[in-house]
Design a protein that fits this description.
Shape: globular
Order of helices and strands: EHEHEEHEHHHHHHHEHHEEEEHHHEE
Distance between the termini: 69 Å
């Protein structure tokens, strides 16, 4: 028997309202959670609790605090882009099931008053949202020129065209049920049909069940073609390559005794599941995985310590498709059992995208100059702006030094008399010739006495200088 040291769980959001994604760019529309969706996520959280936080479970995480959450042991990431509001709601609901209210969640104040958290000891687990503007790990396909080109290549492929032709009768039959929406394989109208079938009683009674099943089948084909690639490091697997860094990093952290992390939850959308199934070669033995996972699905990467005398760590992969059933174990990279953690990391780490720079390179690879410019102009603009700002600040620093130096020299060379102002010094008219009146001398110019004649210098008015911007 192996001991579970820790686990990374990638969870899909629960049910939501209709959601549209542009077939060429995957820019998305607004959507929101439903009561059904948060119940599904809450059920998943309760399931994960019984699996990993019950001492009677064979997958119990050793030495983990399970009654009150320890935020050093448990970390949560949630995708903020796209259907981000729904995903955040799903993360909150899942955590309610994972760490239910506990009256022990309380504090005793200095005056000996005991205060229990609301709702019977509700546990507030921090959620780190992942905004694609700062972190591409959970939505790397947006604003990625190479991925847009990949989508175009899929649509123009002979296989896709043949499938679209075969789907013609279905799209003809479903046209009356989608109310003017484009009925083509590119548009994949399943989301509209599915949400109507689930939420609208009148629509559900009119729609033939076979049409729902066919719509799901074509949607599975469409999304599997877009978010996969025949090459592990291909652009089609971009959704898996960016989240892969999180997977590998969390496993390494769990394996390190000095790091308290034992449970990492990544709440996200369906796309990374498809890519990871292909990258880890799980599709080869399980072709049913080639499609959209159901709401509240979960993909778990368990780090397990081998049985004595084995002292190596192994990775076990489990998948639960929706709220029904239990975890099923799947094997990665051609193995028939758990894979050694060192081998797992070694074989796929080179395909992981770990930074914005690597993402920009992947999204520009193999494209023309115009594509490269369009795909990376934001990053380039930011870099140019930073350089110009640094040059500007350095120039202002040098200018300020120069001004201070000039003032200091002027102060040292200026002759001061005993009186406060030169204008108060009275000259004997007989000592010097009359030079006449200087009509062009404006305010701020005063005569300064030297050995043989007068010089006119601008009077130093430091207080009238404006500060540097």
């Amino acid at each position: 028997m192996t001991n579970v040291l820790g686990v990374l769980v990638i969870a899909r959001n629960g049910d939501r309202t209709e959601y549209y994604q542009d077939p060429m760019t995957y820019e998305s529309s607004y959507t929101e959670s439903t009561a059904l969706g948060v119940v599904q996520s809450h059920q998943l959280g309760s399931f994960l609790r019984s699996t990993y936080m019950s001492s009677s479970s064979p997958s119990y995480i050793t030495n983990m605090k399970t009654d009150l959450v320890d935020t050093h042991e448990v970390h949560v990431h949630a995708k903020a882009g796209g259907e981000g509001d729904v995903i955040f709601d799903s993360a909150v609901a899942l955590l309610q099931g994972l760490f239910p209210p506990n009256p022990a969640n309380k504090i005793v104040l200095a005056n000996e008053t005991t205060v229990i958290a609301p709702l019977g000891g509700y546990q507030y687990v921090p959620i780190q949202t992942v905004d694609p503007g700062n972190d591409r790990s959970l939505e790397p396909w947006i604003d990625c020129p190479a991925f847009v080109q990949h989508i175009s290549n899929v649509y123009s492929s002979s296989e896709f065209k043949a499938t679209a032709k075969a789907a013609g009768p279905f799209f003809g039959a479903v046209r009356d049920y989608v109310f003017g929406r484009p009925t083509t394989l590119e548009n994949a109208i399943y989301d509209y049909i599915s949400t109507g079938y689930s939420h609208n009683k009148t629509y559900a009674h009119r729609l033939l069940p076979t049409l729902v099943e066919q719509a799901r089948g074509f949607a599975d084909y469409h999304e599997n073609a877009i978010f996969s690639d025949k090459h592990v490091g291909g652009i089609g697997n971009l959704a898996g390559r960016t989240i892969l860094h999180t997977v590998l990093n969390s496993l390494q952290r769990i394996a390190f005794n000095g790091d308290p992390l034992q449970f990492l939850l990544v709440e996200t959308s369906y796309q990374p599941f498809i890519s990871l199934f292909h990258m880890l070669e799980m599709i080869k033995e399980n072709p049913e995985l080639a499609g959209i996972p159901n709401y509240a699905s979960a993909l778990a990467f368990e780090l397990r310590r081998g049985p004595p005398p084995e002292d190596r760590d192994f990775v076990r992969i489990k998948f639960k498709n929706g709220t029904r059933g239990d975890f099923e174990t799947y094997h990665a990279l051609g193995h028939k059992s758990d894979i050694a953690a060192t081998e797992f990391i070694y074989r796929i780490e080179n395909y992981a995208i770990a930074s914005q720079k690597q993402w920009a390179a992947a999204c520009s690879s193999g494209l023309t100059d115009d594509w490269v410019h369009n795909g990376s102009q934001n990053a380039i603009s930011s870099t140019v702006f930073a350089i110009l700002a640094a040059v500007f600040l350095f120039g202002m620093f040098i200018l300020s030094k120069f001004i201070k130096s000039a003032r200091a020299k002027a102060q040292n060379t200026r002759i001061r008399f005993a009186e406060d102002e030169v204008s108060q010094f009275h000259l004997l008219q007989s000592q010097y010739p009359d030079y006449g009146t200087l009509s062009n001398v404006g305010p701020g110019i005063v005569p300064v006495l030297t050995k043989s004649h007068f010089l006119f210098l601008v009077h130093d008015r430091t207080s009238s200088l404006s500060p540097l911007p």
